[in-house]
Amino acid sequence: MSLWSVLSSPGWGPGSVLLILVLLLRLSVHIWHKFYLWDLQHCSTDLTGKTAVVTGANTSNCPNREGIGKAVSQELARRGARVILACRSRERGQQALAEIQAASKSNRVLLGEVDMSSMASIRSFAQRLLQECPEIHLLVNNAAVCGFPTTLTPEGLDLTFATNYTGPFLLTNLLQGALQRAGSARVVNVSSFRQSHGYIDEDHLIGAGRPLTFNQNYDCSKLLLASFTGKLAQRLQGTGVTVNSVDPGIVYTRIMKEFSWSYRFLYWLLSFFFKDSKQGAVPVLYLSLAKELDGISGKHFSSSCVITLPPEAAQDPHVAQSLWNTSVRLTNLDKVD
Ligand SMILES: NC(=O)c1ccc[n+]([C@@H]2O[C@H](COP(=O)([O-])OP(=O)(O)OC[C@H]3O[C@@H](n4cnc5c(N)ncnc54)[C@H](OP(=O)(O)O)[C@@H]3O)[C@@H](O)[C@H]2O)c1
């Protein structure tokens, strides 16, 4: 069959229009990413002598679908930071360590094992970390899960809330001394645009509370993270430590690995229009590196690196105080010397 007969076949007309439309849409997404995302290459921040901790920084066992945490860690290492990859899987963590060392040509990348859904694991990780690193300049709370139904951990916390909210709450508080000792430090909470679909009910933390629709526990956990960001920023005023949260945008990673095959298929189908992990890392790196954010704290940033208001529930100071008190009680933080 000649090329001409293929092009003039009846099916080619609408097919070609659709193909052209898809390619044009993809091109506009590409141009948008190129011109509207913060320009990482023009940021001169040097991290030599600084220490950064990134949770969920491992590889994914799935080529071309690295997580955002690994891409963030690689850039921090490239800029000279000592980077601690805080991962729950030693195997995936070691693989990430080797790949980041090779790509960044840095021998200052270390692996720390921590399960962010376990308070005991976080406590022992923090203890080991503080012995090694008395000063921490950057903490990126990146690890998260989604797609799990209400599931209790052996410590009586809901798995999704424990990983996405209670864990970061505990870890950040345990590392607060080291962050303050650094003189100037940043905490970056990786949130999600999904936070606007959540609501705050503290009982969700222990697997109880008002009913949740499918995957709404993820949305609610990210909303709690926004409330925590505001409250922590207020508490840290004048200490030299800032805390902000950011939505990386829609990124093609392994975040939907717990979803049914139909959701994963749709995610794969649309992935052509999504960011890859390097692009998804840019907003997180903006909050970690940009000099213009010195002293900016308690803010939420959109995936275009613009300050936006978090949902109303996360701005309520009474809600934030109550959530803080409950989180302190649940994590036994009040019992730490
Ligand atoms: N992808 C998106 O479209 C999107 C959109 C908005 C926000 N986000 C946020 O971006 C962040 C990174 O997500 P991602 O897209 O890069 O997803 P990902 O590829 O699934 O990465 C999540 C990372 O968290 C780790 N993790 C999960 N549970 C953990 C635990 N209990 N302890 C320690 N580490 C744990 C995972 O490790 P394992 O390999 O061991 O599971 C993995 O390294 C998350 O906070 C997510 O909510 C993502």
TrEMBL record:
Keywords: Oxidoreductase. This is Retinol dehydrogenase 12-like. GO terms for molecular function: oxidoreductase activity. Belongs to the short-chain dehydrogenases/reductases (SDR) family. Coiled coil: none annotated. It comes from Moschus moschiferus.
